[in-house]
Design brief:
Layout lengths: L9 E6 L4 H8 L4 H11 L8 E7 L10 E6 L4 H10 L7 H4 L2 H7 L6 E7 L14 E3 L8 E4 L7 H10 L9 H22 L3 H16 L7 H5 L1 E4 L1
Parallel strand pairs: 6-7
Antiparallel strand pairs: 1-4, 2-3, 2-4, 5-6
Helix pairs in contact: 6-7, 7-8
Amino acid sequence: MSDQIKHECGLAMIRLLKPLEYYHEKYGTALYGINKLQLLLQKQRNRGQDGAGVATIKFDIPPGNRYISRHRSIGSSYLKDLFDSIYENFNDCTPEQMGDVAWLKKNKPYIGELLLGHLRYGTHGANNIETVHPFLRQNNWISRNLVCAGNFNLTNIDELFNELLSFGQYPKEVSDTVTVMEKIGHFWMMRYSEFLTGTNTKVTQTLKSISSLKKKWTSNAFSPALAGGLMVGM
């Protein structure tokens, strides 16, 4: 797939397993997840020199409300700029609102249970905001959204890109991560469609098992893919 992974690109991923109210009560803030993600990325800052990005997914959000948030930066102080922009969303909140976790989750971005951060150390391609991870593949079907970030260089990018064309896709660019994301998205959508129609017994049994296990955990704890999209860090 690629050469040996070296000291390039940084990744951090957090899945909050308890309700957000738990973290507010224990740590005094509803921003525990994003605060922790900032710390993890700061400790890896030497792994990225070209930019940084963050994406979050909220679980159990009613239709008509945004549940995926993403922000990226390539400024000279990219990590500071990234989180300054994220925290600016809360500058207009009153103390009462900052203490109301349900209100924050409904009305403010980045109050999610699943968080992904990436520091870019570019080895191929241009250095602009479009090359900064995480990448986002959106879909109006909640289970078909995909957020992807990675640290790799594909050696067969042309072959994989041409395969996407054979599927009837029309990729917006030729890049490692976009190609991987579109491949994952294509087959994930196929398998999920097979699950819905019952045309693939193995897929149906597997996803039903995941759904059954999920009920034994806290809400959506087991499978973020079925909750609000699939988040991948590679």
